Amino acid sequence: MWRACPGNRKARHVVRGEAMKKVQFNTPAVPYLLLFPQLAIVAVFFLWPAAEAVRSSFYLEDPFGFGSTFVGFDNFVDTVTSTNYGRVARFTGVFTFLVTILSLGAALLLAVKADKVLRGASSYKTLLMWVYAVAPPVAGLIGILLFDQHVGPIVKFVALLGWHLQIGVDYYDTAFAMIVASVWKQIPVNFIFFLSGLQSISKSVQEAASIDCRSGFRRFWTVTFPLLAPTGFFLLIINITYAMFDTFGIIDVVLKTEPGNNPVTLVYKVYLDGFRGNDLGGSSAQSVLLMIVVFILTIIQFRLIERRVHYT
Amino acid sequence: MKRLQISDHIILLAGVFFMVTPVVLAFLTSTHDAVTIYRTGLQYSIGDQGLSAYGTVLTRAGGFTKEVNGMVMLKNSLILGFGFAIGKIVISMLAAYAIVYFRFPMASFCFWVIFCTLLLPLEVRILPSYEIVQKLGMVNTYSGLIVPLIASATGTFFFRQFFLSVPDELLEAARIDGAGPWKFFIDILVPISKTMIAAIFIIMFVYGWNQYLWPTLITTDESFFTLVRGIKQILQVWVGAQIPDYDQAMALAILAMLPPVVIVVVFQSWFIKGLVESDK
């Protein structure tokens, strides 16, 4: 977060990549030497694989390794028109929407309360943020135990309400477990950002607002919420990216690595088709489609950072 | 006013309950034996087994994996966490230093090439990345595990921003005193970046330690398994087991989360500073 004053020129230049030091070294070879390790890694492990993904999305590769044929956009057409892909894409959309909304909403509520209370504020903060450090597959593992058919307390509890919950068997029940675990894992990051956003709102603004507007609820929606909006937009993008990509570990564990008829996300399908199904062309075409999605999200994200400089 | 405070605390306590309970249950369950757990469900008290499941997971090979025990996986997790964090910090500090403090023709081109990597997470280019690492003969090596993860430029971008916020006068003064690029970097820039380095180190260590998909693909040899990678092994044993080793599975889950959680909690203020200011 740039704590720059409104319209700070330098901060805006940072985003555009135009910033320059007034004084710089003029040694010719040194900068290349310093950049070499980073550029070498980027070239070998980023540019090459990315180019390879794009290339193989236009080819039909023989699964036994006997060469490949150029097929133009066939892989893309096959991917987009297959009913399974549509189903997975729809699930990814719903999953992403729910995980994002639920984890942002819960985190915002908790951050507002944690910012307000005086007693125990730092204990609450610690207890609400430490899950950040838990790996997604670990979250998934604890999740499947809580949702386990034989031993899971959640299964026993909802059975009292008449819900016969079966993860791994029922499509919607499995999706439910994935969403709960993913939201649990994501609340801490959102909480940290919202809380620091709230704490950076100046005390004088808050005091002025509390004189003008006595209803705490209205004050939140008319003063605090708009001031938090830039953080919120930024987190929205972060959360969409998380729900689409970083939940891989949770999904893999909840499915116990055997998807069957259960819901999977688009990234999981790239992995399944590429590594289990040996459909290299199809998997690459899906990768390229996802690259386009990420590309758009990143562009939006950087535009938002640029705008956010004016707010904070 | 008083009532308002109470409802605030109730909401916060509910949040804490939601975040903490799953892990507490996992821990309590790990102190019982598998048969008890299978018969009566997850446990709500400390069991008679104590921490023996942890001993089993750490020292005995077999069960989930056939060749390695938890100590080896712990070692591999530490190598991945430290290797990734240190490698990333060194490489990205050097690159950011070059971009910010040197005038050379390719500067903005290099910046954009590095910046590009922020656009695509590893997950979307996973198959070609795997093939390339395989071609280079880096499957089942620590470098194959760590180096491709460093390809994303988050660290470079972060250090670049930080260096830009360092006052120009420092370099002017250093140059008047006759300091060259290397001396300026080691004697001035690194010391003033200490807090930033610590913050980034924590974030990167947690990120490296928690990797799952990449280690799953790159390490097929059990002696390279990390604790998080070991979870995949648990699942494969579970499918078809009569009474799954719930206690050991939970012990492994707790072991796999303990080091990053301790680091994040202990160095909380640095970690939050790094997270909020790096924005990525």
From TrEMBL, chain A:
PROSITE patterns: ABC_TM1
Entry's transmembrane regions: 30-51, 91-112, 124-147, 219-245, 285-305
Coiled-coil parts of chain: none
InterPro entries given in the database record: MetI-like, MetI-like_sf, UgpAE/MalFG_permease
SUPFAM superfamilies: MetI-like (SSF161098)
Location in the cell: Cell inner membrane; Cell membrane
Any Pfam family: BPD_transp_1
Topology in membrane: Multi-pass membrane protein
Keywords linked to the UniProt accession: Cell inner membrane, Cell membrane, Membrane, Transmembrane, Transmembrane helix, Transport
A GO CC term assigned to this protein in UniProt: plasma membrane
Domain of life: Bacteria
Domain ABC transmembrane type-1: 89-301
GO biological process terms on file: transmembrane transport
Keyword Transport belongs to the record: yes
Function: Part of the ABC transporter complex UgpBAEC involved in sn-glycerol-3-phosphate (G3P) import. Probably responsible for the translocation of the substrate across the membrane.
Subunit structure: The complex is composed of two ATP-binding proteins (UgpC), two transmembrane proteins (UgpA and UgpE) and a solute-binding protein (UgpB).
Family: Belongs to the binding-protein-dependent transport system permease family.
Name used for this protein in its record: sn-glycerol-3-phosphate transport system permease protein UgpA
Protein's organism: Roseibium marinum
TrEMBL record, chain B:
InterPro entries found in the cross-reference section: MetI-like (IPR000515), MetI-like_sf (IPR035906)
PROSITE patterns with a match to the protein in the record: ABC_TM1 (PS50928)
Pfam families: BPD_transp_1
Transmembrane segments: 9-28, 78-102, 109-130, 142-163, 184-207, 249-272
Subcellular location: Cell inner membrane; Cell membrane
Keyword Transmembrane carried by entry: yes
Gene3D superfamilies: MetI-like
Superkingdom classification of source: Bacteria
Topology in the lipid bilayer: Multi-pass membrane protein
Domain ABC transmembrane type-1, chain residue ranges per copy: 74-267
GO cellular component: plasma membrane
Keywords: Cell inner membrane, Cell membrane, Membrane, Transmembrane, Transmembrane helix, Transport
Biological process, per Gene Ontology: transmembrane transport
Chief location bin: membrane
Assembly and binders: The complex is composed of two ATP-binding proteins (UgpC), two transmembrane proteins (UgpA and UgpE) and a solute-binding protein (UgpB).
Family membership noted in the UniProt record: Belongs to the binding-protein-dependent transport system permease family.
PANTHER family, alphabetized: ABC TRANSPORTER PERMEASE PROTEIN MG189-RELATED-RELATED, SN-GLYCEROL-3-PHOSPHATE TRANSPORT SYSTEM PERMEASE PROTEIN UGPE
Function: Part of the ABC transporter complex UgpBAEC involved in sn-glycerol-3-phosphate (G3P) import. Probably responsible for the translocation of the substrate across the membrane.
UniProt protein name: sn-glycerol-3-phosphate transport system permease protein UgpE
